[in-house]
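INFO  loader      accepted 1 record
INFO  loader      residues=113
INFO  predictor   begin
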Amino acid sequence: MEKYTPHTITTWVAEAVCSDLENGLTASKKSSFLVSQDFFADIILPYSVKRGEILPLNVSVFNTVNQKLPMKVTVLDSEQYKVDGASKTVCLNERDSKIETYQVVAKVFIKFH
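INFO  predictor   done
INFO  writer      dumping tokens
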């Protein structure tokens, strides 16, 4: 059986229930499988930012494989903010993480959800 899973890092646990006329109702043993990604980034945003406010934007990048992994981390400018130093190249060691910090200047009031 082939199923698609969400792009999250989690362990899924499942069991099946079967019925037939000969054996009645039976349940399988629980089975689990880990869904993971080779690499990913995580950004924690503040609740809001005022126009003209300068904030450090921390981007955490993670490598979950057993080999070094080169990455290019880019935060693009928008109509709402300007980013100082938008692209950075990092090489993460196996099963390692790193935080890259960008200086962001808000052009307008921004409320994050």
